[in-house]
Amino acid sequence: MRPFFSSSNQIESFIALGLVLVAAQLTQGAACAQEAGAQSAPDLLPYTNLYTADEVGKNFARQQMTPHGNSKLAFEILVPRGWQSAVSEVDPGQLARDDQAPVMMAEFYPSNADDAWAVTLYMRLPEEVSLATFIDRMVQRDGGTLVTRQARQMTDRAVEEAIIRANNEDLGPMLRRVTVMRRGEFLFVVIGEAAEEEYSKYKRSLGVLATSFTPIPLESESEEGQF
User: Fold this and answer.
1) CA distance 120 to 102
2) Whole-model pTM?
3) How many structural domains does the chain have?
4) CA 197, CA 186: separation in Å to the nearest integer?
5) How far apart, in whole angstroms, are the C-alpha atoms of residue 227 and residue 9?
6) In this predicted model, what pLDDT tens digit does every residue of 58-114 receive, in sequence order?
7) 29 membership: H or E segment, kind and range
8) Which CATH number is 174's domain given?
9) What percent of the chain is predicted at pLDDT more than 70?
10) Which domain range does residue 42 map to?
11) Which of these, 19, 34, 106, 210, has the minimum number of CB atoms within 10 Å of its CB?
């Protein structure tokens, strides 16, 4: 099954999202009305103690990817064993407009199920656009419902996360975990989605995908000790 973003309306939504973000000179305070109705559900966004070290070694495989042949987009990620993964193929025009709309990097999905998947995207955005604002605008453009969100600080970067409830024509209500982080001029997005009735089965695996995503430092950055 193709992930949610492969439909034309979702691609158009991402394009619209990018145009809104770039054109509006956004600030942190935008789109708070959606958040007021959010429910407290911290168990939907687990990010610590997901598995033991032995379980991670047994159930996940570390993969390195270089989307679109661009070393600035290279990342590594832990993928559940039994899941398929692929670097996304996009039109060259999308790469040329990566400052206007998010661009797909890679996709992941179970080999024997069609009720869950994950994707990674990037967008070239000015630093004044906050992570929280990106999520706010994503909720608005997709027409979903913000269920819960959290901000956390990792050793080398800030992370903003949210759970968005959306509807899939084939599977019905879906829960979408959105994880956003920044590296220099690039905003990176990890989206993991599952049918709401099956989310509890997938939430730890989606948590590992989200929390293990790590941009690979360029050689110059490694030498300087920068992220």
Assistant:
1) 10
2) 0.81
3) 1
4) 34
5) 35
6) 999 999 999 999 999 999 999 999 999 999 999 999 999 999 999 999 999 999 989
7) none
8) 3.40.1000.10
9) 78
10) 4-217+220-224
11) 19
